[in-house]
Design brief:
Helices cover about 50% and strands about 15% of the residues. It is α+β, with helices and mostly antiparallel strands. A hairpin with a 2-residue loop joins β8 and β9. The chain binds coenzyme a persulfide.
Amino acid sequence: MNFQLTEEHLAVQEAAREFAQTELLPGVIERDEHQKFPAEQIKKMGELGFLGMMVDPKYGGGGMDTISYVLAMEEISKVDASASVVMSVNNSLVCWGLEKYGTEEQKQKYLTRLATGEIIGAFCLSEPEAGSDATSQRTTAEDKGDYYLLNGTKNWITNGSTASVYLVIAQTDVAKGHRGINALIVERGMEGFEIGPKENKLGIRGSDTHSLMFTDVKVPKENRIGEDGFGFKFAMSTLAGGRIGIASQALGIASGAYELAVKYSKERKAFGVEIAKHQAIQFKLADMATNIEAARLLCLQAAYDKDTHADYGKSGAMAKLFASKVAMDTTIEAVQVHGGYGFVKEYHVERLMRDAKITQIYEGTSEIQKIVISRELLK
Ligand code: COS
């Protein structure tokens, strides 16, 4: 076993840290408050290669491994989880899904621009009545010969109004159940495709979350990903990797809050000494650091499994389940360490606490992760 990061890994980590501190930190509080999408920052992230990190360079990507991606996600998420969810969706759901399962034409047409961040993508599975129960798709993609007629509504779609390319999961043949589901590439601007109002969220408020409506949208057959009926497996397989991204996001939210708590506890005095000298604070920091280290190891394990072509369904689900709990627990404690200052926006930890919650919900709730893990255990 070798726990040593390579020179390349350390360089990626440093570049992400530098970017987060210099480009994302200024304005993060205001973007959260006003629900402002970090458009300029996302553009720069694309230019720096953070939006297509693992994509083959021949399609415009960085050709990096999943470990690099985890390290970068942690650094970006320490500061701005609204930016890191864009990064996670574009890298692990959209780019990875297209590179793994798309045709050469689809890759040339879409992946090359998505990997460089020239455009960003969205992944559209959730519906008003299909979140965890992902096979219950009400959105239909009726087979009309050389095109699909797409009708339905998708909910809570990250990059909802900023994406140019949407991977949409829809039911073609109800009788075939999950084997009758397809994944279609839908372009922004296709006739009948409407973007609904922006969600007013508890956390990741800078990210752009919308419902989407499709009314008789004609999607050409060549925009289907994989064979007819492959859509559900496409979604499951893609989400398995997506969970490593969200686990790393949760890890970053936790480590960001922890670093702020350490800093504050060395500055703030109570009863004549820095609060870091009180055991009540020391024990909190010890718990936070231990949990974060364990979450980081689970994230890196899942990334390593993916990079070595081992099965990463279970390790990715474990990483997400654990890291998202650590994010929640750590941010709550970081607010506590900050006392009254933790409750106001200027100190960042209340935002991180609000941001943490979504990591236990999206890309499979914690309860879904337990289903995935226990099924693997009992196979
Ligand atoms: N990769 C590839 N295929 C997979 C897979 C994976 N990781 N997981 C499941 N599949 C396949 C199965 O092999 C099965 O195919 P066959 O019937 O041809 O063998 C098919 O998908 C259905 O799998 P399963 O029977 O396990 O489906 P269930 O309906 O029991 O659902 C859960 C399984 C609950 C795990 C799934 O619905 C799920 O992950 N739900 C959460 C979805 C989610 O993350 N929603 C959030 C929205 S995105 S923000």
